[in-house]
Amino acid sequence: MNxxxxxxxxxxxxxxxxxxxxxKLIGKPVLVGGSSDRGVxxxxxxxxxxxxxxxxxxxxxxxxxxxxxxxVRGDTSEYSxxxxxxxxxIAEEVPMYEKTSIDEFYMDLTGMDKFFGCYKLATxxxxxxxxxxxxxxxxxxxxxxxxxxxxxxxxxxxxxKEILFGTEKxxxxxxxxxxxxxxxxxTYQLLRGMGVxxxxxxxxxxxxxxxxxLGDNGSVIWRKAQGIxxxxxxxxxxRKSISTERTFEQDTIDVKMLKGLLIGxxxxxxxxxxxxxxxxxxVTVKIRYSDFNTYTMQARIxxxxxxxxxxxxxxxxxxxxxxxxxxxxxxxxxxxHLVQGGHQYNLxxxxxxxxxxxxxMDKIRKRYGDEAVARAVGTDFKRTKMNxxxxxxx
Length: 394
Known about the structure:
The chain is an alpha+beta fold. It has helices at about 15-20, 45-50, 60-65, 75-95, 120-135, 145-155, 170, 185-195, 200-205, 205-215, 215-225, 255-275, 305-320, 340-345, 350-370, and strands spanning about 5-10, 30-35, 40-45, 70, 95-100, 105-110, 135-140, 160, 240-250, 280-290, 295-305, 330-335, 340, 385-394.
């Protein structure tokens, strides 16, 4: 059976939402992100992209490229509202979908030809989303996720495209190797150094050569260049919260140790959020005393998944909550009100230097384990004798 996989992407999502709020922004170069020189571009309009501006670029550099650009700080709650609206529409219309970020979806319409016609169904869904949200949206349909994602990029802005079964390789051939998912800046420069600019060249290369140069990723990129991708659409379920608790073998009143432990716990949960491209808007701290009385305190925050912001809030809640000066049996942390779309959202909170730092730390953790790198003040928890529990709610 030929698969019918649709990739949907909202065009310049943050900018498009801002234009709904303020129509005067339509047709003008718009940058969403931190307004200071140390800020970062979280999203930019197509008019701004014509000046060479792109997401994650330092705002100072973007201003130099386009001095007349209008800078908007952004409203993360408004973006979440529209993302949820679109998610609900898709959930009503299709049997299986995967939400990979705040503004990006995959849908598996395989078998729907018997009832509607897959491309017709996707077209009607796009029209409904535009009609009910007034947001521009693009999609492409093909036999797999890779080709559909590339196709959506070719359909933008505010367009749609169908890549017929059997034409995947032909469709990809004339495109830049940058179009292939997994080809980041480093891989791109490496391939360009080999004289490879177009996907057609990758298609003609032996897979073994790419493996020698890029390791295991080489074979994956080679298959993607051929239009081959067997990865399934993973059914979407919204995780409501993530949490972790520590129960001590001996009750303690060592506040320094407790705060070090809380920092370590927060770092691990924050890394988990970033790994899953999620953010939290609510932090809860829990304390259980030696008499088994349990107390919690929570606070709403701006959406984030960054250690330094979450650690400050956790420490603040602990200081407010720990008033009894009694022996503690258990402490816990919970992050809730989770939303998808971590990378773009985090750009609101970070400077370019912080982006590089977090990316480097997460890369180390991914390779060597989530305890491979941590703040010195938060490492005491590794040596603390305790029973632990990690909770996930959906």
